Amino acid sequence: MFVFRNIVGAVVAMAFSGIALAQQTEPSDQEAVEREDAYFDQIGRGAEAWVDTCGRCHNLRAPGELPPELWDVSVTHMRVRANLPGDMAEDIKAFLMMSSESMTEEPASGVDE
Ligand code: HEC
Fold first, then answer.
1. Among 43, 49, 55, 81, which is disulfide-ready with 60 (CB 3.0 to 4.6 Å)?
2. Residue nearest to atom 3 of ligand 1 (CA)
């Protein structure tokens, strides 16, 4: 499980840096900031629950294995299969969808301006 925790750390760090970049370019009001904080909390809970739960019956599936929209389907399937609490499944789904997106998206253009 030690290795998996490192992977989670790397994935979360990657995703957060992407979101931090987006924050710089889009000024947001207080409400939007609070929504983002809640979203980060959910991603963090989801990452932990993913490591603890999703490797119980088979190997842990990496976020990049499926595109975001298929994680929606798959986690719903696994929620039923493993009888997971609904809020936990939502957290895991948010983590997997966001991570999958950040792994599959094209590199930003104009990086070496
Ligand atoms: C209770 C055991 C169990 C747990 C816990 C579990 N799975 Fe599965 N998973 C299975 C089984 C069994 C299959 C094979 C397909 C089937 O028979 O439903 C599977 C298949 C899959 C597949 C293949 C595609 C699919 O949807 O069938 C993916 C991806 C997957 N699991 C991801 C996850 C994720 C993500 C989690 C955590 C939310 C998870 N699994 C938790 C038992 C489990």
1. 55
2. 57
